[in-house]
Write a structure and sequence with these properties.
heterotetramer; A: mainly alpha; Helix Hairpins; elongated; B: 12 helices
Chain lengths: 119, 303, 1090, 254
């Protein structure tokens, strides 16, 4: 149940991102929509990793290494999502600087300003 | 050796006959034409006089080698054309050199003289000469079409291209003539013959009446004489050819004279009774009805 | 084996430390980067060595000291090694290209990003872990995103943004797919998944797999979701575009190749469909492009699409491949080769990918070096002519990309079509062939626009008559200034340092070397590698050019090697092959002589020429269809390059290429069909059409006049008198296929109509070369007609015509070339009266036209006699009638030719003209001697021909001394000759006697001219529009119906391209819409269970 | 409008396609064997108490290396985009940033982007707070990445925290000059060191990026789990440096 909720939210988020990407006219808004898409995907990844009433896979007083297998969530998606987040961050940064550049070159942030190349 | 000598002798005889016959025929026809037009006309032997006069003219001018050779080519064309046709069927004297080539050879040898003449006229540098040449050649290609179709029809009818065999196939009764066994071919051929003789309505090439236009424009003295000689021989050759093709050839001189005279008369009559075509008109004419008739003749042979 | 970790470590270390290096000094940094590039280029080579010669098995390298799937593993197998060799080599030269270039400077972050991009691509190729794949994908993509900004133009920023949006969507899909795959299979390791039997089942599993595949496909820029890719190609710096196309695209394609075992049949089918569509549509799109780099970009997209389709079809093709490799259609060489490359479809993929990678990168660089931005040509009327090295290089790369032999794509094309047809997927093969045709079209259009002379309008397909006599002077000036042998040599003046050509040069060399090796592999079975002689000749003369050997020497050498080739080859031939062998080789050797007259340097000319002659010769002794096709294509491409040398030939050359290639593709299809056991009518039609194109049969002839006439004057003769026979020869070779009565009669009609059309069109030409070109067309028509008769006389006549046409057309072309060379004009009416200045040429032409028009007693009549006899025997009466008409018309234009040039009024500016140079006269003498001999003694040529056709047709003609006797008639050339001489000499003697000393020669204007003296030759010389009555009577036949038809076909393609372009509105949101649409459609189809 | 409709249709279509993924997956009952293996063996294999760290740094260390590279490439890209090519112009810009006035925007280096509406300077309060908080945040960041193998967090988190401190400073004073040399050195050396550690693993231990060439140490101690803390620290430094660089080159001062 938990998984499905997370997944649904994740997918909704991604679709929202796509929607914004395709409809918002402002470049920065498009970038924001893009990070929405990313976040949605990350949520999906986390949701996949969830195990029924499991806890974080970190051993401490509460969680002894022995027999931890039944008590923890899947650590792999967490590891992957970590990487994915950082990569998303990098892409967003680069996108932003591109947007800035487009603005300085075309004096406009409207998506209509980036239609020089076509056909 | 002996055989060659006799052959040479025969050739000379045959040429002598055809030359004189051609000249006389020309003179006669000129008279006929005059009569039709209500004139008295020139004496029958006028062509002889012209040739002699031209040949013994004191001064002559020429424009270059090809101009000099042009008439020679022309005459060679005429002589050759005649010499490859058997004039009289079964006669050793008049069989000429027909053994060395068949109908196709004759048809293509006609070009030989045309080409040489055209070259000679061309070098004269006179604009009218190539003008006449271009008209003449254009017209020639046109009337070649029905003629070729007629020839093909005849050849396919008798399954041979050898003139002698064609004549042989027409022996024995007037009904064996191609004219009757294959009338369409005959009609097509005879119409194209009108073009071949360059009389009216296809006479624009040499335009006899106006200031001289056409290949012979610059020709004079013995060059012109040579051309006139050729005209006689060539005329004779063509007549003989058509006689052989369509009218059963001739077994002796007399029948040859009669038949060729009639054939020639037919062209003169037509010429006297029709005005002149422009070149493009005559091209369209020949590629029109006559060609269709020729095709019909061929198609009949196909069926 | 060296661990691939070092590859990663070195790249990363260099990238991380690069700022410090640059602090120490730019040159140091540059050299470090170069070292790294060299290292990563060499490492895979060592792997390949280990894997093949040392016979190691593919190694899987573990990281972090744990076994996969616990840790990430990298695999080094033959596939990885081969692809990395190609990719890293391209990267190395790409780096060198960027380094050698003046601006923009290649330094700082750009170098860093270059390295990280390479790291990403190498990792993509090596890794076996899906998520790790994602990481490397992102590394390469982000580096590329950043590199796009290299040029700092606003377009670059725009393109970069679009690219990032698209890439972002793709990676999102990738992540979803990967995480679900992990969920369903419990692992991220590719090998484990494959071992577990491919991807997970079920709707969800399929969807996950599809998302993975879709992400990779989108990165490969499928139609229509690829506008952003084209934008990037267009806006990026050429060096970066090259990397984009060669390195990144190839790497991502390898990812797709890697995951194909996971994807089920359905997804693979969709990938194949998508790839095919992408290929076809990209070619259509590229056709309309103005920007060179966008055009090349679309071409890359198309090629990658083709690769995708092939990789996706692998399961279907592999059995076909093994069967074909075992079967006859592939020589043993390839089987060994395939084993060497890992077998299966893989070698095909390597050939396609490698060929595209190297040639495309090279072309991108060339566009950067020559500054060619617009497909319409080079800026400020510059022309690559002035730099033969660059022109040759671009030509080579273009030919490689278009798949001409010996380059890898040629073999790939052959294998692919063979396999596709053998598996019965005809539609795909047709699409591929059509696409390749279009691709060749626009690629070579660009090439021609780069090399054409500035004053070449590029669409010269017919004579251009100057407006009036004033224009005539200017025309002469221009032709004088244009003629390379009048200019002070064609010394190459390269606008840029030769060194900058290094990178494309290396790629060219790699491609050539690979092609040669492949040729050796494919022709391993054949005795001797004579098939490669053309390439050897090309290489030899290119070498001579590079060391600046004088051109005259080259010509003599060329004649010598041609003669040697003939001596080596001809003795082994008999019958028809021998006849054509003599035509091809002896004829060419003789006609090379006039080239000696050229001054200055002509790089590439002799090389192409000898290569052309050799490939023609190789046609003679092919045994397998591959050998034939190899030589055929080689002949096509070499002759194309010869045509393109003409002063105004670019348009004609393009037509020539497109038509020849189209014909070749038809032939290829026919061969494939027949090799797959379908010897039905369709095969015959395809191959017959292919050969007819080469012969310029009516309807397929519109390439012919331009390319015959616009070629350099001393080269036209090869096309007219030698090359046009190639198609005829192949018709003879494949006669068995075409022997059915229906085909024969159709061929016959085509032939006779071609003969008529040729003669008729020649009639109205003022430009002498066009007259001769159409005349050749007509003659070939006669040959075709006689061939179609399928009778002894017919075939004899066809061969007889082939030989005699070589003689008289060769010598006429030589004479005319001499005349043009002296008078500096091609317009006949501008000449005239030249007989007094050039008597020998006149005599040649006289003999020529007598022979050609078939007037007795010369050889021409023999042809007519046999033709009509055979036609009437066969019962083709109507054809005979048309043929006679055609020959009459031929007589017209021939007379016009000789009269207007040599007779009539000599022009003032030609009064000092001299006879043509000796080198032009040599072939004329040869021709005259030959013609006289054959006319005098027809039997010395007819009897051998009779024996040549004896194996096919029993004799129904026989001999009686000199008289040849058919069932219908007879002909004694010997006696005819004597009689003609007699009747000619007697009147001549008579004339000489009666002409006494009073006969005198008079001046030019001394004519009876309506009582006034003409003072200008121009006004007196009747030459222009000579047969106006004919035009008046039959002018309506001159409608260029065929040209219109083909123009219509071409415009259909262009319109299609133009309408598809509308999809690419340039709006990034539309682009992303297409992407999502692409995904959703295929996704729904998939879940719909299609 | 048509386009809008098409977009809606497309999105519904793809949502329909995603449906089986979203709804077809139940909660997992137990770990996948691979994950179970990690949970069971990470302690004795690597001696990390944070399994995720074990995976990120060691088992899937190559991913992490690549991740660092991605960030590095992005930083390089941002620098490439944001600074015009030639260094002397960059110097000029730095100089102009040093002193007041509108001459901050010069040439085509794009610094006039957004400068049409002058941005307000950071307030006194912000400046003081930033100065006070800066070391603490730094300390916190360092703590996070050296304890990455024991507690939640790690190199990336730490690096981000550090960069955020710099961001705070820049908020306070946009014209704050950063030591580019230091940044560059830190970035380059930490990255190279990371690669070097990986190679050490290859030479001295079982494979590339194998942290076990150092003693596993006492479980749960700070100096344990082999080279993992070192790697994480290097990552932390590198990430911090790179993000700082990004922030630096993205800033636009009036």
């Amino acid at each position: 149940m938990m998984t499905q909720i997370v997944l649904l939210i994740g997918f909704l988020l991604s679709l929202t991102g796509l929607w914004g990407l395709m409809t918002r006219r402002d470049l920065f808004r498009m970038i924001i929509s893009f990070s929405l898409l990313d976040t949605g995907v990350h949520m999906i990844m986390v949701g996949i990793g969830y195990v029924k009433n499991g806890t974080a896979p970190i051993f401490d007083e509460a969680l002894a290494p022995a027999g931890a297998v039944e008590k923890v969530v899947d650590p792999i998606p967490s590891a992957l999502v970590l990487t994915a987040i950082v990569i998303g961050l990098a892409v967003t940064a680069l996108m932003l600087s591109y947007a800035v550049r487009v603005y300085t070159a075309r004096k406009s942030l409207s998506v209509e300003a980036v239609k020089e190349l076509r056909w | 050796m002996n055989a060659i000598l006799t052959k040479a002798l025969y050739t000379l005889i045959s040429l002598f006959v055809i030359t004189n016959y051609g000249l006389l025929l020309g003179g006669t026809m000129a008279r006929v034409r005059a009569k039709v037009q209500g004139r008295i006309g020139q004496p029958v032997w006028q062509p002889y006089l012209d040739i002699l006069k031209n040949n013994f003219k004191r001064t002559g001018i020429y424009h270059g080698v090809m101009f000099y050779l042009g008439p020679v080519f022309r005459l060679a064309g005429g002589l050759g054309t005649y010499l490859f046709i058997p004039a009289v069927y079964g006669s050793a004297v008049f069989s000429n050199f027909s053994f060395s080539g068949d109908l196709l050879l004759v048809m293509y040898f006609i070009f030989f003289g045309q080409l040489g003449m055209a070259l000679g006229a061309g070098q004269s540098g006179h604009p009218y000469s190539p003008l006449g040449v271009s008209r003449g050649l254009a017209q020639m290609t046109a009337f070649e079409v029905p003629f070729a179709l007629a020839v093909i029809a005849v050849a396919s009818q008798h399954q041979t291209l050898s003139i002698t065999e064609l004549v042989a196939a027409q022996q024995g009764g007037i009904l064996n003539w191609v004219a009757f066994t294959n009338p369409l071919a005959m009609i097509a051929g005879m119409i194209s013959f009108l073009g071949m003789t360059m009389g009216n309505p296809f006479s624009v090439v040499i335009a006899p009446q106006e200031i001289p236009i056409g290949p012979p424009t610059e020709m004079q003295s013995s060059f012109l004489g040579m051309l006139q000689t050729n005209r006689a021989i060539f005329q004779g050759a063509k007549l003989v050819l058509f006689m052989n093709l369509f009218f059963g050839g001739a077994t002796n001189i007399v029948s040859m004279v009669v038949k060729t005279f009639l054939i020639y008369l037919y062209t003169v009559v037509v010429g006297a009774s029709f005005p002149r075509f422009r070149t493009d008109q005559s091209i369209r004419f020949f590629l029109g009805v006559p060609t269709l008739i020729g095709i019909a003749a061929v198609v009949i042979q196909m069926l | 084996m060296v661990s691939p970790m070092y590859l990663i470590a070195v790249l990363l270390g260099a990238a991380f430390l690069h700022p410090l290096f640059e602090r120490a000094g730019r040159s140091l940094a540059k050299s470090v980067v170069l070292l790294v590039l060299v290292f990563i280029a060499v490492l895979p080579v060592s792997w390949l060595a280990d894997l093949t010669w040392r016979g190691m098995v593919p190694v899987v390298f573990q990281t972090a000291g744990f076994q996969a799937p616990v840790s990430i593993s990298l695999r080094v197998g033959v596939e990885e090694a081969v692809f990395l060799i190609m990719i890293n080599a391209a990267a190395l030269f790409g780096g060198i290209y960027l380094m050698l270039r003046k601006s923009p400077k290649w330094e700082g972050k750009v170098q860093v990003l270059f390295l990280t991009m390479l790291l990403g691509v190498n990792g993509l190729v090596l890794t076996r872990d899906l998520f790790n794949m994602f990481v490397f994908l992102e590394i390469s993509s982000i580096s590329l995103y950043a590199l796009l900004a290299f040029t700092r133009s606003s377009d670059a920023y725009e393109a970069g943004f679009k690219y990032m949006v698209a890439g972002g969507i793709a990676s999102a899909l990738f992540l979803i797919g990967v995480i679900y795959l992990y969920r369903f299979t419990g692992t991220l390791n590719l090998d484990v998944m494959i071992a577990a039997g491919g991807g997970p089942g079920g709707k969800a599993g399929l969807t996950a797999l599809f998302l993975l595949a879709a992400a990779v496909l989108i990165e490969l820029k499928p139609f229509p979701a690829n506008g952003w890719g084209a934008d990037a190609y267009q806006a990026a710096d050429p060096g970066i575009s090259a990397m984009l196309s060669a390195v990144s695209a190839t790497g991502i394609f390898f990812v797709f190749y890697k995951i194909t075992p996971l994807l089920g049949a359905e997804i693979l089918r969709m990938a194949a469909i998508s790839g095919g569509i992408t290929f076809a549509f990209s070619q259509l799109l590229a056709m309309k492009q103005v920007s060179v780099r966008r055009m090349l970009g679309y071409s890359s997209i198309g090629q990658i699409g083709l690769l995708t389709a092939v990789a996706a079809l692998a399961p279907m093709l592999t059995p076909a491949f093994s069967q074909a490799a075992g079967g006859s259609s592939l020589p043993g060489g390839l089987v060994a080769g395939s084993g060497f490359l890992g077998g299966g479809v893989f070698p095909l993929l390597v050939l396609l990918a490698g060929n595209h990678l190297f040639s495309k990168a090279g072309l991108f660089w060339m566009s950067g070096i020559t500054g060619s931005v617009d497909t319409g040509g080079l800026p400020e009327r510059a022309s690559l002519r002035r730099s033969p090295a660059a022109a040759g290089l671009q030509g080579l790369l273009t030919a490689a990309l278009a798949g001409f032999p010996p380059f890898p794509a040629f073999w790939a094309k052959w294998l692919l079509i063979m396999m596709l047809v053998s598996t019965g997927s005809y539609f795909l093969s047709a699409v591929i062939l059509l696409g390749s045709l279009i691709e060749a079209w626009y690629l070579f259009r660009w090439f021609l626009n780069c090399v054409k002379k500035p004053q070449d309008s590029g669409n010269v397909h017919d004579e251009e008559i100057p407006d009036d006599f004033a224009a005539m002077e200017m025309d002469q000036e221009m032709s004088q200034e244009l003629r390379p042998d009048l200019k002070s040599g064609g010394v190459p003046v390269s606008g840029w340092g030769f060194i900058t050509l290094f990178a494309p040069l290396m790629h060219g060399l790699i491609l050539a070397a690979a092609g040669t090796v492949l040729a050796f592999m494919f022709f391993a079975g054949t005795p001797g590698f004579a098939l490669l002689l053309p390439l050897a000749a090309l290489a030899l003369f290119t070498l001579l050019d590079s060391v600046r050997v004088p051109f005259k020497l080259q010509v003599f050498l060329g004649i010598a090697v041609t003669a040697a080739y003939g001596l080596m080859l001809l003795p082994g031939l008999v019958g028809i092959r021998l006849v054509f062998g003599l035509i091809f080789i002896a004829g060419s050797a003789v006609q090379m002589v006039p080239l000696v007259n050229r001054k200055g340097r002509h790089p590439g000319l002799m090389g192409m020429l000898t290569a052309l002659v050799f490939s023609l010769g190789n046609l003679l002794f092919f045994r397998t269809s591959l050998e034939f096709f190899f030589s055929w294509e080689l002949m096509t491409v070499t002759s194309f390059f010869l045509v393109s040398r003409g002063n105004k030939a670019s348009g004609a050359a393009l037509r020539y290429l497109v038509f020849s290639l189209g014909g070749a593709f038809m032939i290829l299809a026919g061969l494939a069909l027949s090799s797959s056991g379908m010897n039905g009518g369709i095969t015959a039609v395809l191959m017959g059409l292919g050969f007819l194109v080469k012969m310029g049969a009516l309807g397929l002839h519109i390439w012919l006049p331009g390319s015959y006439a616009e070629t350099d004057d001393d080269l036209s003769t090869f096309f007219s008198s030698v090359l046009s026979k190639a198609g005829l020869f192949m018709l003879f070779m494949t006669a068995g296929l075409l022997a059915q009565a229906s085909f024969a009669s159709v061929l016959g009609w085509i032939g006779v109509l071609t003969a008529f059309a040729g003669a008729f069109l020649a009639l109205f030409k003022e430009d002498i070369k066009y007259t001769l070109a159409y005349s050749s067309m007509g003659q070939v028509g006669y040959m075709l007609l006689s061939f179609a008769l399928m009778s002894q006389l017919g075939w004899m006549n066809s061969l007889y015509l082939a030989v005699t046409h070589l003689l008289f057309k060769g010598m006429m072309f030589a004479a005319i070339a001499g005349v043009i060379y002296r008078t500096k004009t091609r317009m006949m009416y501008q000449m005239g009266g030249l007989i007094s200045r050039m008597p020998i040429s006149f005599f040649t032409v006289l003999i020529g036209i007598i022979a050609l028009s078939g007037v007795p007693p010369l050889v021409g009549f023999g042809a007519k006699w046999m033709l009509y006899t055979a036609l009437i025997e066969k019962g083709w009466y109507l054809q005979a009638g048309i043929a006679m008409f055609a020959s009459g018309v031929a007589f017209l234009y021939l007379f016009r030719l000789i009269h207007v040039i040599f007779l009539g009024q000599l022009k003032d500016e030609h009064r000092e003209v001299k006879e043509a140079p000796l080198w032009f006269l040599v072939p004329q003498f040869v021709g005259i001697i030959g013609i006289m001999l054959f006319s005098m003694f027809p039997d010395i040529i007819l009897k051998p021909l009779q024996t040549a056709v004896a194996p096919f047709f029993s004799g129904d003609i026989f001999w009686e001394g000199y008289t040849v006797i058919s069932t219908l008639g007879y002909w004694n050339g010997n006696v005819v000759m004597y009689v003609t001489m007699g009747v000619f000499l007697v009147p001549l003697a008579w004339l000489l006697t009666v002409q006494r000393r009073h006969t005198q020669k008079v001046g030019q204007f001394n004519i009876v001219y309506a009582a006034e003296r003409p003072y200008r030759p121009e006004t007196t010389h009747f030459g222009y529009n000579f047969f106006s009555p004919y035009r008046k009577a039959l002018g309506f036949l001159l409608q260029p119906a065929a040209a219109r038809f083909w123009y219509w076909v071409g415009s259909i393609a262009e319109v299609a391209g133009a309408s598809i372009r509308k999809l690419y509105s340039g709006n990034v949101q539309t682009y992303s819409l297409w992407i999502v649409l692409y995904v959703s459609i295929f996704l729904l189809l998939l879940q719909g269970g299609v | 409008m048509i386009k809008r409709l098409l977009i809606i249709l497309t999105l519904t279509a793809i949502a329909f396609g995603f449906y089986p993924l979203a709804w077809g997956v139940e909660d997992a009952r137990q770990l996948s064997p691979l994950a179970a293996g990690y949970v069971e063996n990470s302690v004795e294999e690597l001696g990390t108490s944070n399994v995720v760290t074990a995976i990120v740094v060691s088992y899937r260390g190559l991913d992490t290396l690549g991740e660092v590279t991605v960030l590095f490439a992005a930083a390089a890209g941002v620098t490439l985009l944001m600074t015009s090519g030639n260094p002397e112009r960059r110097k000029k810009r730095a100089a102009s940033r040093g002193k007041d006035g509108k001459d901050g925007k010069d040439g085509k280096d794009g610094s006039e982007g957004g400068s049409d509406k002058a941005r307000r300077q950071g307030s006194e309060l912000l400046a003081a707070g930033a100065a006070f908080l800066f070391p603490i945040i730094w300390l916190f960041g360092i703590y996070i990445f050296i304890h990455g193998h024991l507690t939640p967090g790690g190199g990336f988190q730490g690096g981000v925290v550090i960069a955020s401190a710099v961001l705070l400073i820049i908020f306070a004073d946009c014209r704050q000059e950063l030591g580019h040399t230091v940044l560059q050195l830190a970035e380059a050396l930490s990255g190279a060191a990371y690669v070097g550690v990986g190679l050490l693993g290859l030479w001295m231990a079982a494979g590339f990026l194998d942290p076990r060439f150092l003693a596993a140490g006492e479980f749960g101690e700070l100096f344990s789990a082999g080279a993992i803390p070192i790697i994480y620290s290097l990552i932390g430094i590198k990430v911090g440096a790179e993000l700082t660089g990004i922030v630096d080159s993205l800033r636009r001062c009036s």
